[in-house]
Amino acid sequence: MCAARKKTEAVEIETVDLISLLTIPGQDGMFEAEIALLEPCEEIEMEQSAVQASATTSSAFSSGRPDSLHAKKPAEKAKPVDHSLDTLSAIMKRAPALPGINSRYSSPPGDETPISDDSFEKIVSEIARCEKCELCKTRRFTVPGVGNPNARLVFIGEAPGADEDACGTPFVGRAGQHLDKILKAAGFEREKVFICNILKCRPPENRNPTLEEMHHCTPFLRRQLNLIKPSLIACLGNVAIRFVIGADTPGVTKIHGEWFNSIFGLPVMAMYHPSYLVRSGSRERGSPNWQMWQDIQKLKKRYDESAG
Ligand code: URA
To answer: Which of 63, 65, 89, 202 is the most exposed place for a label (fewest CB within 10 A)?
Structure first.
């Protein structure tokens, strides 16, 4: 073997070792057993359709990266958001419950007016140029969302983190890799669903999004949902849950796995955020990862039924 190749291999081995040293204990081996249970032919089919799905998904739609879209243009004057309690309680007026939905915490009705000639390209481009809040000053890339434009299921997280901000794609960091495993173990193909966040820009230091930031960003999410027309939504973590289901919703530990009405008029399941699951580590009976496994199977069942 030539010296240059030996050197390259040595560097590769060192890199792999460094990665395994940096991997949080408990993250590996968590859903591999379920993934291994999938029929081999099913896996091959999944890979083939993943290739097809990525070939048909527009890159402008799936990433916030195109540099031409990041040219600065004069900021649109942001409409002031009224956060007074009166306004919030007015919008918290109960929406009619959907069938099979837990209506205890049903969400406020949303603004359903669709934009007639809307498109994913338009939305991605507007997100890339958005300067409605201060996050535009600190973001690297906007993170509009990724997946199937005709998805029957949309996962909604909170906001991009450092890894997502660096590449323009949601859920690619450690939490995202954990989510990928959970999806795969349950038989979901990441390319067949749509994955996005409430916020399209990273809050500095990964702080929680403010209500004002969420209000500025939700019209983009609403437009995405109007185009995708999914049958189901899954909200990952308390921030997304409280915004999409209602501010009076109890924490995710109490309501995970339950179906609710959403501000988008679609049934939504409350789910744990994958970064919480990574941190909690264990998959013992009763643990958050164990509970997530029950919830994702329940979600898959309803997803399969919605195909009918
Ligand atoms: N956490 C989120 O809520 N969203 C991401 O895209 C990444 C981490």
So the answer is: 89
